[in-house]
Amino acid sequence: MSNRLPEQIETLRMVSQGERLKGTIALGKMQRLRSLLTKTDGDVGVELEFGRDQAGLAHVAGRIKAVVSVICQRCMQSMDLPIDAKVSLGIVLSQDQAEKLPERYEPLVVEDGYSSLTELVEDELLLALPVAPVHAVEQCPAGDRFGTKETTPKQGVSNYSEGSRTTQASERPNPFAVLADLKAGLKKK
Length: 189
Fold this sequence. Notes:
It is a single chain. By secondary structure, the protein is of the alpha+beta class. It is 21% helix and 30% strand. It has helices at residues 11-16, 31-34, 95-99, 117-128, 177-188, and strands spanning 8-10, 20-26, 43-52, 58-71, 78-92, 106-109, 114-116. Helix 3 links the parallel strand 5 (78-92) and strand 6. The chain is elongated, with a radius of gyration of 27 Å.
């Protein structure tokens, strides 16, 4: 049986007590993420540690792991995508403080001392999702029909991989050459 985590946490108290959270949150509770998934069953594994770093900054660090079902943008079929996201958040009380955080932290703005753990986890999952998820070429039902593997260029297709811009079109005569000849003939008259 998995340890279900609360939806809301008292963030500043957890920092002051150096608490750790380990458990799961149901994918189905994440409204924004659900619209991107083909299945919403399953859980997200969460391991977070609250505390202060050497400079005294309140932070949350840990990992979020899940397997989500998304649409492969190559074959347009469902695929399972494992996510293992590292969490490194600096806890701040205002947007002004957020702008002063070191680069190693993303801001977690806590205005009233509480945070939505579900939203925090959902945000991290959304950031970890690729813009265009695809199967590995060898696993994709579409295979290589979209030319994703390295191949020799076909006639009429540009070859940018070797830095050249040769095409079939450059081997044909310029159709406007006839107009250039006519223009040159008019100038002679």
